[in-house]
Amino acid sequence: MPPDERKLVTIERHILDQQGQHPGATGRLTSLLYDIALAAKLIARETTRAGIANILGATASENVHGETQQKLDVFADQVIFRMNDHTGRVCVMASEEHDDLLHIPQGNKPGYYVLIYDPLDGSSNIDVNAPIGTIFAIHRRIEPGDGRGTLADVLQPGHKLIAAAYVIYGSSTMMVYSTGNGVHGFTLDPSIGEFLLSHSFITIPTPAKYYSANHGKQKFWTAGVQHYIEWLQGLDAADHAPLEHRYIGSLIADFHRNLLRGGVFLYPADARQPSGKLRLTYEAQPLAFLAAQAGGYASDGVGDILDLQPKSLHQRVPLFIGSRDLVEQAEAFLREYDQVWLAQYHTAR
Ligand code: AHG
Ligand code: MN
Ligand code: MN
Known about the structure:
- The protein is α+β, with helices and mostly antiparallel strands.
- The chain has two domains: 3-199, CATH 3.30.540.10; 210-348, 3-Layer(aba) Sandwich (D-Maltodextrin-Binding Protein, domain 2).
- It has nine helices and 15 strands.
- Helix 1 (11-21) packs antiparallel against helix 2, helix 2 runs antiparallel to helix 3 and helix 5 (223-232) packs antiparallel against helix 8.
- It is globular and about 60 Å long.
- Bound molecules: 2,5-anhydro-1,6-di-O-phosphono-D-glucitol (AHG) and manganese (II) ion (2 copies).
- Residues 96, 118, 121-124, 214, 249-251, 277 line the site of 2,5-anhydro-1,6-di-O-phosphono-D-glucitol (AHG).
């Protein structure tokens, strides 16, 4: 019985195979993705040991958003930066946990890529043992050369991304990535410390099964979002099957479930957060890239997330992401009922 081919495909081998698809490939992206996979293994080890390794709980510091930083946020942030600050593959980095750009330290040669990341997504779930994750976005630098990267290198539209990945630390640790040739998932086998191919060419299935929204915010939603939620729940006149509701409070876990089962995640603008909560450069853009590669779509309620030109590093954006038909339906409800909000948002967009 030949060995199960799937079991033998490590992420390194898969990235090399993918590299073969890019004739001009130099191997630099392959090495960067390998560095990211190694950082993920180090973070995964801490998430499974958090209770024992005294890494639970909050630090005394806050991040740029005024959110208390969890110890694991800081650990994950440092691991990713240190894994990439000396390799000569990255010219600049940006992280949710730092106000400004993260430059390559003096003495290390800046490279060709830009790495933007959310080191720990779903921080509020760390101490309650619910799934959390890490999100990566990779751009090429705009100007060739070996000087240090700039803000312009980071603030590129999503359709310029050359790769995106996330890691979900759940009942198993999985890394899901795309370099523009489909979405592929790898499950960490802790006994050998390798990510092994477990989900090849992931595509969002139809019909969709779930919708994900924080109903605790319902009183602040716009009319268009209220009507959309009723539609998702089958409460409107039309006779279509209601979707089931699942919301875990970690974007990465809700996104991952909807990617594999079909569904839509929405974190809309509301009366208190007129541009939503989630950040464009290290949450919405990389996941929108992956959703599109899996046959799905991501919108800010007006149009494609991948078309947005970021204006600032931590810019927030409303997010509807997952099955294309469900996301397009959200845009239709907002066009019909939220003209006032759309007019205000358009100017900020
Ligand atoms: P982070 O932990 O990186 O700040 O992200 C948290 C985000 C996202 O993971 C999740 O979907 C959302 O916050 C949950 O927000 P609410 O608790 O307001 O629903
Ligand atoms: Mn996040
Ligand atoms: Mn985070």
